Structure formats: C-alpha cells, structure tokens
Structures
1.
Amino acid sequence: MAAPTRTPGAGHPTFAMALAYWFRLGCISFGGPAGQIALMQTDLVDRRQWIDQRSFLHALNFCMLLPGPEAQQLATFIGWRLHGVRGGLAAGILFILPGALVLLALAWIAAAYGGVPVVAAVFDGVQPVVVGIIAVALWRLGRRTLTGWPALALAGAAFAGVHALGVPFPAIVLGAGAIGAAAARLGSGAFGRPTAGAALDADPLPGPWRTVRLVLVFAVLWAVPVAAVLALLGTEPYAGIARLFTTAAFVTFGGAYAVLPYIAEAAVDTYGWLSAADMIRGLALAETTPGPLILVTQFVGFFAGWTAPGGLPPMFAGTVAAALTLYVTFLPCFLFIFAGAPYVERLGRSAAATAALGAITAAVVGVILNLGVFLAEAAVVPEGRFDPLAAAVAIATAAILLRWQVGVHWAVLAGAAFGLVRAAATGGL
C-alpha cells in the first residue's frame, strides 16, 4: 500500500510538516466541502506545491465518485500520495478530529441543557435558519445537476419514492446508479460523460489480491471494535448505531444532506434516539464547526447513548456511542481511498462510473427535497401549528445566502440571536 512515485517538481514535506498542516486544516476547515477544497487548492497546489494541479483535479474527480465526504477523502488521498498509508491516516483523521471534539461538547450541552430556557431559545431560533440553508443547498445542487428531463424525472421519482412510498435511501442510490450505468452503456450522455486525459502516474497497477487483502483488513478493523463494544456494554443502542451508520457510510453520495433523511428517519422514528427538533439542532451545530458536515452523525450517536445509557452514566454512554458512530462512519472512507487510489485515472475516465454518479446526484436532489420537507415540518409547523415568523426567517435566510454569499455559520449565529430576542419578547426567558 505504498504511495505512488512522486510527481517531479512537487514539494517534499517531511511527515512532521504534513502533520502540522493537517491539524491546522482540521481546525480551520469551515465552509463546507467547497470552501475546504478551495483551501487545499490554495495551500497545497498554489503555495506549498505538495501536489501538482493535474493530480489534484484527478484526485478530486475520483473522490467525488465515492460515497462519503469528498473533502476529507481528498485530504486522505493527498496524505497518501505524500507519505503512504500513515500519511493518509494522519490527513484523514486530523481533518475530522478538531471538529469532532467541538461537536462532542456541543452535543453534551444540547442533551444536558437543551431544556434550559436560554439554550432552548437559541435552538428554537436556529431551526428555521437550517431550513433556509437546506433550501439553498437544494437550489444550488439542482441548478447544477438537473440539466435535462431525464435528471428531472429521476429527481422527482426519488422524492416520490422516499416521501410517499417509503423506499429506503440505499435502494434509491443503487437504483439511480444502475439507471445511470445502463444509460451510459446505451450511449446516452443524459447523466454525464467522462473526462479524457493522460494517465495520472506511470506506476503499474497492483494485482487484484491487494484489494482483497485491504477489504479483509478493514472488515477485521470494523468487526473487532464493534464486537468489543457489544460484548462489554450490551447491544442497545450500539448494535443499531453500528448497523445504521455503517450502511450510511456506503451510500453517502452527494454529500451529507443526501443521507440525512435516511439517518433522521431511522434515528427519530425507528430507534427514538432523538426528536426531529434535536436533529435540526445537530445539523445546525455541525454547520458551525470545522470538518465535514457528516459529523452530524456523531451528534445523533451521542444522543443515542444519552437516551439509552443502559445503566451507565449518560455522559459515558453518549461518548462511547459518539466514538463508535465516528468510527463506523469514517472507516469506510479510508478503505475507499486506499483501495481505489491506484485506479484514479481509470475510474475518472469510466463512462459507466461517471453516468452512475450523475444519476445518483440527480436522485439526491429529490432526497434532499424530502429532507427539507421533513425539517420544515418540525421548524415551521411545530406540533401542527404554522409559525409565520419561523417561515419568514427561513425564507429570509435562503434569500440572504443566495444574494450575498454570507457564511453559513454567520446565518446560524443570527438565528441564535433571533431565538433569544424572540424568547425575551414573549417572556420565555
């Protein structure tokens, strides 16, 4: 699993230099995947020259084909190219660790003090802001993705399947991918065409047994810690956590927003770990912390342990549950990079893979629309009562984000202030 031959002319940082950079990146990686990728472009390609532009773009295209957070996987890939497996592990782990620690503390505050009037007022003000944020994400993704009637039809079918028929999200992903691949085999470019280019590296491809060995190693790395937690602490809620978030890790195409309806439905309706309002709070907190948005799964996991501690102190159970959630969520990300990195160029030039991803992304638009409906019901129509002020805040948030490109974290902070002012005006504090 050694890294490929380095590109001539690229920078040659020591491992200590790389460690310092990856930790810094993990602390300042606000702004979602677009901002995180732009930051790596500026730092690693333009300033430090640790990777050349062509390799960076090929790696980015590869990561966008994978399930999981593309910015975190891009960092993992670059770390692997620089220092092999240890470099990939360092880059990927440090990309998420600072945000995970911050979100763990915020999850505890939400669970332990969410009923305190001041804290509750903050969260209530944030909820409609999150609805506006999701509306903007839906608009931007849809405008870029739904460029023809096949994509529009697939998005509509995905929304109907999830919202009206209850089709599981993994089935939506698999079905959309199959439709895209089939379209490519028929010569259709309805869901995208691959990009041509020269080979990324001159290194020979590894044999198939390398992938088999990697899959076996990662299967053991998944099974042993999960089995240990279940044996020591019992199955509830840890078996459900391992099952739900491992499945989610393999179907997170199109970003965290795409898989959140699947997670929310299971966490809220099936397991009862938290409420829909708590789910919105977790999403808002994840939006304001560094690292990938999929860290919201850690918030859900913490609530799972807090709600069902099984005789353990809730803080301890919540922390273990959050750690288990992080582990099973991100472990597959490393497998995808280490197993697929030698095949970057071939995957990026595959018509079937490109069309499958395009079809999945189109379907994801419909799934995100379902997420918006789910969260809007909780934030704008709480307990069946329409809240016109909350609706106005959601609409204003979307308009401001679209018009002035305000950072999402500022919108969340403004929502918190709105909640405090509203609670004070109505005597809720």
2.
Amino acid sequence: MSTFLRNLRPLADSSQEYGVTIALEVYGDLMSTGRMAADVIGTIDHPAVRMIYDTANCKTYGGIWAHENDDLPCAIPLLANLHLKDELGGEEDLHFPPIGEGNVDFAGVLSTLEWGDYRGPLSIEIEYDNGVWPDRDVIDSGVSPSVAHIRTLLTAAGASAHGE
C-alpha cells in the first residue's frame, strides 16, 4: 500500500491543478468495502481523491451489503459517484444482472443516500459475460428495466418523503 500511496499523491496534486477528481472504486482487496476505501482515502487526505461506491462490489469483495454495517453511510461524505449494480452469486460466481434481478436492496441503498443527503451522480452498471459486449438489443433489454426499477423506487421514496 505504501507504493500506491506514494504514487498517488503527485497524481492527486496534478489532478487538482487541472480541476480533475481521482475517484477510487470500492473493489478488490485494498478497498473491498466503503469503510476500507474511506480509510485509504483518509490516509491519502487529498481533496482531489474521492470514492466510487459500488453496491455489488462491497458484497462480492467485502462480504457486506451496502445498506448494512454503516458501510455506505461512512462513504457518503467521500463520494464522487455511486454505481448502482446488482449482484447474484458471490466471489466464486461473479454475476451482475440488471437492477432488480439480484440481491441488492436498492430501496435500502436509496434510503441511505437520502438519509446522508447525497445529491451526486448515480450510474447503473451491468456487467456481461467475460467482458464481451453483447448486441445493443441485449444491452437495452438490461438497461431499460434497470432504469424503470430505479425510477419506481425513487418515485416511491419521494412519495414517502412527502408523507404520501
């Protein structure tokens, strides 16, 4: 980790000069949860270094769900972006289906983001087999229901926030 930190500092300084943010994703061994990523980013302690939280990677690589164990709440102040990604399987069986077809509690995730007053970008991420891009029809058949599912949850959350 010391080499990583040593190399990142000059990059962060240069990035800041150009108004660029370096966003490190919750992924792998070093930053497999939001809490671990927050610790790494806290060690770096540079305003140009932020976090991309991934709602499936925290489970796949860190063994915890985003809305549990204060993992997402501790990440919110450091977020540059949040990947909405669903998960089926686990570390041995990587499967990231369209949103709403897996095990991630997106209502819980969105509620946590509302609680933390997160107003930054959200992106939908779907991973396909072996990193090979499928035909556009296959992509559309995954993206369209994912967007619809998130919109439904956001609409429901908005109604609850207004006491409806």
3.
Amino acid sequence: MAFQVSPFLQGRQQPLRLINPVMVAQEAVGHLKRLFQKMRGRSNPCALDLPVEIILMVVAYLDGCSLASLSLTCKSLHGLWDPYSMPLILPDKEKLLLWLERDIPYIYYCHHCTKLHRWHGRWSRSIAPFYLERLLCKQNSDNHFYIPITCQIPYHHARLVMNRHLYGRNHGLPLHVLNERARSSHHPDGVIDSRSQHARIFNQQLLILSTISMTHRRGDPLALRDHIDRAGHLVCKHLTLRQGYPDSYPTPLPQLAKGTGPDAFLACSLVNGSCNSCLTDYTIDIIWQGAKKGYRIEVLVYRGLGDCRTPFSWHWRTASRLFRDEQPRLAYSSEYRLGGVREQWNKAGYMA
C-alpha cells in the first residue's frame, strides 16, 4: 500500500540539513559581537571595541582574581567568571576586595571578616562616642588604638582617613575627624589635667599628636606628685607618666623621676625623649610658675601609626598591643630612628 501524504503537510516538507560545526562557532562569535556592539557606545572607545577573538585570547591569560574583576565591569563580560566553578582562594579574594575598595566609594575592607562594609558620611562628625556600635563586623570591635584618656582611635576610622587621602573624598573620612579639642578634668585632689589631639599625614603615614597638661589649682606640688604617681597617664604601651618600681612595665619617664627637694620635681624645659619599642616620641616641659601656681607639666606625644593598610602591620601592632619581648624599633628599619616621628610632624606642619 502506497504511503499517502496528508494534504495539510503537502508543500511543507523541508529537506534535512547537515549541521556544520564551523558555522555554529561562527554564529556564536557573531552573536557575541552583536551583544558587545549593543553594550558599547561608538563615541566612547573601550576594550569591547576589540574583536571577540582577541578578548577571549586575553581572558585566557588572566588569573582568577583578574578574571573576576573583568567580569564585574559590564553585563557583556559578566559571564566570563563563574564563582562556583572557579572559587577564589583567600589571598586572591582579599586582593579583589581591595581593588573594589579603591574603586567604589563609601565602602571599606575589613581584614577580620574578609568583606566589604559600608560607611556613612555622619561618621565624619566624630570618632566618639559609641564608635564600636557602628561596626557591621563585630570581630574587630577590640581592634583599635587605645591609650586611656590620651588617645583612642578605632582602626577602621584610621583606615578610612587614609582611604580618603589615597583614593578621594568619597572614599573615606576627613583628617579632622581624628582631632579632639582640649578637654579639662578637675579631680577631687585639686589636680587639673587637660588633653587634646591632632592628626597629620606625611609621606603617606598617619601621625598623631597628643598634648597632656597637668597642674594643681592651689599650686600644691606634693599633691600633684601624688596624683601622677597614682594615676599618671600612659604615653604609649611601653612608657607612662606614673612612677612605680624600677623594673615595672610600662616604664616611667625619666624626666618625672622624684627629685630630692621638697617639691619632688626636677624642672626641665622642652626635653625630648622616645620609646625604644614603638614609633612614639615625646617632649616634656616641667615649669615652676611660682608659689601660688606651682608646677605645670606638659607632655607632647608624637605617634606614628603607619599607612593603616592593615591592622597586622608592625606600626599598628606595636602601638595598640603590649609585647614585652618587642625588638627595638631601629631593628626594623633605620627610618625608625629615635625622634623621627617628631621630625616628620614638624615637617608636615611646615608644608601645610
């Protein structure tokens, strides 16, 4: 019996066509070309103006971090990197996030959780109070430069200040956010102390000057002496104003050693000193103002916090933590000579 073709199908039969792999590849490349042409503007030359074949050849030489960065530039290239089939190892992930921190405003990189966090413009008002409550990552809540009374700077604030200096105003906080006006405290024993803080940047390094001033409202040198021995402020993690045992740690400033006279102080004028362990220099001034006013003690503390690119750097580590077996600062670099931070501060003031 002969096979009858339905009238409905008559005239609709198409001959079978063999698939040519070369033509399929050409069609795929052509599709990519048309897609790239839609995404790019003819008036703005860019990397997509290159032939697709060249783009794919370039991609073949990229590592995972660079490929991920390229895939984030536009929708046309978004599919070049698959995070599931090509996961980034931790160093490459950190490298990529640091690139994004540099390019995207209002975010900062957290070394503790390896993520990007958003910061807000209202942080520009002050670093205190309640600066720890602002953190999106609580893992680094204790990672701040903390010298009681005299200097308290969270690391993420210092980083954002340097980000603004390096990448532009929308990438961080203004330098003045680290400044603090002079504040005075009146103690029950009659001692009045005041402290202030100022910040500068010199040679891509963050510098902090803390000023400490102490006097007695009735000019009683013995009461002032007793107050310093009991509650003297820290100069850094390794030096203190407080007098203790000769082998105590932190070490008392030698200029504040007890005198042999009835006043229990040895007057000195603008004597310079330095910490041997961290980048801290100081200048101390002990002035006799007469029987009514007594002594006035003023200490200028110069601190070098480095470039604040990582909380694990030597600068930040030695400034924020106490290590009894810390090597002398000159053992790390000849640039860390005693008095070098004070010189940098003065040079930054001349250039301002």
4.
Amino acid sequence: MHRSVDIDPRQATTRSGIPVTNPLRMIVDVGAVIDAYWVARALERCVVARLVTAAGVRAEVDRLAASGRRGVGVVRRVLDDWPVGDVPPDSVLEVAFARLCRRLALPTPVFQHELIVGGRRRRLDFAYPALRIAVEVDGFAGRTDRRVLQEDRHRQNDLVQAGWRVIRFTWQDVLYRPDYVASCLAAVLGVERCA
C-alpha cells in the first residue's frame, strides 16, 4: 500500500471500499515505489487500455514535479524512452517492437502508417513507406475470429498487389528472438546490422 498526502480529490475514488487514485496519478505514484522497468510495463498497459495517454502522463509529471513529488524522475525516464510518440498503440507488442528497433539501432519505421490500398483505408503496424515495406506484429489477442483472420489475409494480399512487401513477427519473435527480427529487418531494408 502506498499513501499520498497531496492527492487532488478529483483524482481519488473508492473501489470495493478502498480509496484509490485514477490511472493517471497511479502511474506517477508507482514511480515512487517500483523500478523503471515495471513503471514502463504499467504505462504500456494503461495506454493500450486507453486509460491514459503518454501526453497526459507527461502533463501530470510536469504538474507534480513542481512540488518535488517522489516518483517523478522515474516516470520522466520512462516517458523519455517511450518509443511510439503520442499515437496510442493497439498492443504492448507494438511498443515492444518499437523499443527493439531502437535498441538494435535499426532504421525507425513509421508507426501506424495509414494508406489507401485495394480501395480501402488500411493501417499498418509499422512501415517504411519510401521502400514500400510493411511490418506487422502479430499477437494472439483478437486473432481467434475467422472474420479477423480472413480480413488480415485480404489486407496483406491487397498490400502485396499494390507493390508492398509485408514482413510479420510474432510475440515470441519480438521478445525472445530479437536477433532473428534484426536479421530479417536488416535483410529486407538492405542495411547492415548495427547491434
């Protein structure tokens, strides 16, 4: 349990009889009691769940920093390492892939690139538009429905017909096989491995 004495009443509520803060304040509060790795994981999950935005957390950090609030430094470091800007990711896998690209010093892809292909508006997880390379990161969530699987394949076929190369990575690849991801990307991009 963590108690704060400087909580704005608008940031507090009660859940099952227990006083708690809202997710925005919670991110800063956990920065005072856990290390940056876990703060980053909490931020990822809250942003993906659309409970907070990276910009909102930045504003809260700035507001609380003036009072010398503990945890602000940790959260600021996590935000400085936030790899996808202010566009909300759809999954923690997208954040992990963006971090991996940065860590391996690979060229930075455009995150959630939108385009019209096959007469439809499409959004790619990551893209190198000038090279017409799409990178999709596939988790298991949301891929159990036949319609979703079918739409995924139609989308990929539309991209290929429009001259795009599509490369796909799974959760296992991104988290446990970073060398494989780096080698594939370097080969497709025509760059030397930097890591």
